[in-house]
Amino acid sequence: MQLPLGSLTPDQYVLVYNAFSFGLATFAAATIFFWLGRSQVASEYKTAMTITGLVTFIAFYHYFRIFESFDAAVSMTNGVVETTGKEFNRAYRYVDWLLTVPLLLIELILVMRLSQSETISRSTTLGIAAALMIALGYPGEVSAGIGSDRLLWGALSMVPFLYIVYSLYVGLGKAIQSQPENVRGLIGLARNVTVLSWFFYPVVYFAPFVVDLQGADAFVAIELGYTLADLIAKAAFGVLIFTIAVRKSAASA
Amino acid sequence: MQLPLGSLTPDQYVLVYNAFSFGLATFAAATIFFWLGRSQVASEYKTAMTITGLVTFIAFYHYFRIFESFDAAVSMTNGVVETTGKEFNRAYRYVDWLLTVPLLLIELILVMRLSQSETISRSTTLGIAAALMIALGYPGEVSAGIGSDRLLWGALSMVPFLYIVYSLYVGLGKAIQSQPENVRGLIGLARNVTVLSWFFYPVVYFAPFVVDLQGADAFVAIELGYTLADLIAKAAFGVLIFTIAVRKSAASA
């Protein structure tokens, strides 16, 4: 799809620019927060904190790339927005998700401290389903225009997506009931934040079929939508994981 | 608002340039000081020190961006200041404040070690009020000229601002009285530094309505004013938080 970057208004250009910078700064700060926080949890939750920080670290790297790619593709001189001819790489988000989404699910499973066999089996099936979901969405995202290819690949991607949502509610639902009482509510909240923030992504993906957004407006809506969803699903979700790990560590001490 | 960067005198250009570099260096140094200091406080104050360092880290990142943006927008060759046509991004300050101002309030609440429920409720209401205050000030700052838009958005932004000041004095006032005696004065001082340094921002924001500063003079006054306010509100304030955390750690040991 030819991106309508040249028709961005100056306000839209600055808004997208600052949203990418905001994402970059937030993910860098969140990473340090989680890795420093690692020393404040019991040893059995340290891997969960390492991975929580890895997710935001990988997101930090990709927002840096997205920021640089946008900066190279579009420029504003004397208040006029122009494309430079360089490509804006939309694939960075998918490379990011391919790495971070399986890790996000593993993060949630690790902080629950299930049995070793259950941890491995759930991490494997949910991790593979998540990777499949991202890989299937990608051809639709980069296909030309908003047409049948986007619809087909988007629909295929929804199969593993719905399987993950089902697993989180039904499969993990029972495991949540066996968690210590002081964190049961928080783990349920983390599960709900995961599912709700994840619903953002298909909403943004399919929005162009429903709302008649054209050109630059569609671009701005998609980029701001994905950025907000990433911030909730990775940084805010990570703060919940940290809080759960701290409380469970205090209880076991 | 078209920035009068081209009419900066060589002295003004160098002054602003060095002020941004000074901010960048101070925030980088402060960040390392706070994160290294984390090992000197008891475990219950480690999160406060992590966040104190995050605030200056985020400010360091934004002063780096502001410095680079100013460097790209204006150049001085053979003693003549000229604009390059590239935009000086004034929004970086607002992106910074959107992240750091809620964190500054959380820092102060964390070092007081209130009950868990009070910590969460105060952090949430003060954090949301702070984000609202920044978001409402932004449209006025980027509006064309010094006119009614700046006045309207500035006035709206003052509502959450005054709510925060009121909360810090009345709400936290009682909590301060229940702090250990050896830090009560310091926490009161930290609260006063917050409020006094924060009053700098609306003073700088509204100054162009009161003082007849035009063009380059107004630009220099605004940028130096905000930089000074940031240094006090983030770095100097952080040193107070560190001192409080060290004293409380010694008392509880």
What report would you give on this structure?
Two copies of one chain form a homodimer. Chain A has 253 residues and is mainly alpha-helical. Chain A contains seven helices and two strands; from the N terminus they run ααββααααα. In chain A, strands 1-2 form a two-stranded antiparallel ribbon. The N and C termini of chain A lie far apart (55 Å). At the A-B interface, α1 and β1 of A face α2 and α3 of B.
Which residues of chain A form runs of ≥5 with pLDDT under 50?
none
Helix content of chain A: over 70%
Order of helices and strands of chain A: HHEEHHHHH
| N-end to C-end Cα span of chain A | 55 Å
Number of helices of chain A: 7
Alpha-beta classification of chain A: mainly alpha
For the largest interface in this structure, which chains are involved and how many residues does each contribute?
A-B, 20 and 26 residues
Radius of gyration of chain A: 19 Å
The total of beta strands of chain A comes to 2
How much of the residues of chain A is beta strand, in percent?
under 5%
> What multimeric state do the chains show?
homodimer
Mean pLDDT over all positions of chain A: 90
Could you give the order of strands across the largest sheet of chain A? 1-2
Concise overview:
The structure is a homodimer of 253-residue chains. The first copy, chain A, has 7 helices and 2 strands; from the N terminus they run H-H-E-E-H-H-H-H-H.
